[in-house]
Design a protein that fits this description.
The chain is α+β, with helices and mostly antiparallel strands. The protein has a single domain, classed as 2-Layer Sandwich (Alpha-D-Glucose-1,6-Bisphosphate, Chain A, domain 4), CATH 3.30.530. The chain is 26% helix and 44% strand. Strand 6 and strand 7 form a beta hairpin. The protein starts with a strand and ends with a helix. The relative contact order is 0.24.
Amino acid sequence: MTTLTNAIRVNAPADRVWAILTNLAELEKYDPTVASSTVTSAAPTGIGATRKVVMKDGKHWFDEQITVFEPEVALAFELTSCNFPIQHLNHSYRFDTTDGHTTVTQVMTYTPRFGALGRLMDVLAIRKRSDAGIKKFLDGLKARAEGS
């Protein structure tokens, strides 16, 4: 299993960051790697809410659902299906607020597919590509929350 941890300090209160992250239909408005995000559940947010995400590369997609929903404290998603060379992907968020700033920490865990070959692919490419994508996502979240 691979674990990637990233954090970013956002010059906005936690409720603003929370509102952005929990609006499942608007991921493409701040994640530069995403072409579209469509809510696929009856409820637009909250535990069990789901979405389908299509990446800008035109090749990759994933479906995910919210598994933890504690307003302005903790949020987690689990991929339910995807065409990436990974499985069992979860990403969680923690929010720490100080003096009107919010530090958002994301922890992503996943297991590469394809056994030993997948683990090698992870070391050589998947991990680096995933980490770079997370950093772009967090930068976009920061810009949107700060009103840029």
